[in-house]
Design goal:
Blueprint (H helix, E strand, L loop, with lengths): L8 E4 L3 E4 L6 H21 L3 E11 L7 E10 L5 E7 L2 H17 L1
Parallel strand pairs: 2-3
Antiparallel strand pairs: 1-2, 3-4, 4-5
């Protein structure tokens, strides 16, 4: 039986972790980091005590030029329950942005 290798994560700053992004090229990662950074700045302004942000991407239904991505986002604050959102679709940037936008809506409600 083959064991699954643990997914590698990369840290952005002190509290942001991107998991499963190792197979994307540098230009895609640069855009993802920019999207995430902008939203995390908004989250920090909206609610104090943001301690951890985890974004996990998984490729489902992988075909040449037709992948479907699933993104799971978790925001952890010093106080209160964590905020968890999910999104899936064919465009990586849209899926990441959609998960972050859902978290923003939950924070503002």
């Amino acid at each position: 039986m083959a064991e699954e290798e643990p997914e590698e994560g990369m840290k952005l700053g002190g509290n942001i972790e991107l998991i499963g992004f190792g197979d994307f090229d540098r230009s895609e990662l640069a855009v993802v980091k920019k999207i995430v950074g902008n939203y995390v700045r908004k989250f920090s302004d909206m609610k104090k005590g943001l301690s951890n942000v985890k974004i996990r991407v998984k490729t489902i239904h992988e075909r040449e030029k037709s992948e479907v991505y699933e993104v799971n986002l978790q925001l952890v604050f010093d106080e209160g329950k964590p905020i968890v959102t999910n999104s899936s679709g064919r465009n990586l940037f849209f899926v990441v942005s959609d998960a972050l936008k859902s978290a923003e809506e939950l924070l503002s409600s």
